[in-house]
Amino acid sequence: MRIQLTKKTIVLIGLALVAGIFAALSAQQYIQNRIQEIEDKAKVSTVPRIVAAYDLPVGTKIESAHVAVREIPSDWVVSGSLKPEEFIHIEGQVITVALKRGDPLLWANTATVSKRPFSERIHLGRRAVTMPVDSINSVSGMLVPGDLIDLYVSFEYRQRQITAPLLQGVLVMATGQQSRQSEAGEAQSFSTVTLDAAPEDAAKLVAARQAGVITALLRNPNDDKASQKAIRGDLATILGLATPPPVIKKKPAIVYGDQQQRRLPALAINKEAEEGGATVQRGVIDVPHQEDIVSAWINSLPQPTPEQLQVIE
Known about the structure:
Order of helices and strands: HEEEEEEEEHEEHEH
Low-confidence stretches: 267-280, 308-313
Radius of gyration: 45 Å
Number of helices: 4
Largest sheet: 7 strands, antiparallel
Strand content: 15-25%
Helix content: 10-25%
Structural class: alpha+beta
């Protein structure tokens, strides 16, 4: 049985197909628009911000290893939070508020280190000893940070006065609270002097202050020679003004041949005028075991660059 399609029928079928295709496309476009609309409503706008990579306590010096970059929803961004490109402005500063991991880093949570602690200027193996000015008052008015001084101690030993070098070439680290020379060059009043010393030298200085009188002598910074000279005796003896003891005259000893051999009396020798065949100054002695100046180790250190000096200041 053959069905004959008329021209009208073919036209209707064609229109139906076109309508169906249009309807399918319209439905697909509608579905895609709804999906995009739903996705746009669900999508949250984020911005990159700097956060703490670890738990950071107060005082932490900020470095790149301490922070991370996280995407934070725009609606949740805290005022004062830092963008990644702003990290260069806070690197090297310290944290003023303890942060937990993931907490955003804020401008208000950082502070510039205005002054480095004085302890950072003390080299490893060295100590800073602060002495009252009245203990070393001989040059206190002329001292400035960076000077070198010799410390002499005067004390009594076996009923004789002795003045001997205690420490030589001691570096003055600070006068009062002034740790660098005044730019104006004006004299600064101070009541204490802070000195650089090895631990054993610091112990000597404390002991000498308790048992004797310390006197400071200003040293030329280019003088690297240590002196071994000390003074023994009271001032009159040192100046040669002491009255010599009376001479006791003794009868000459007579030795007879028929008696046992006897020792002749010892000859009197002026020990202060002759020692080892060489004439020495009255009262001046050499102190044994005197080492180099205590600040000689500074010469072996590398010289700081101008940038490092500016940071220290």
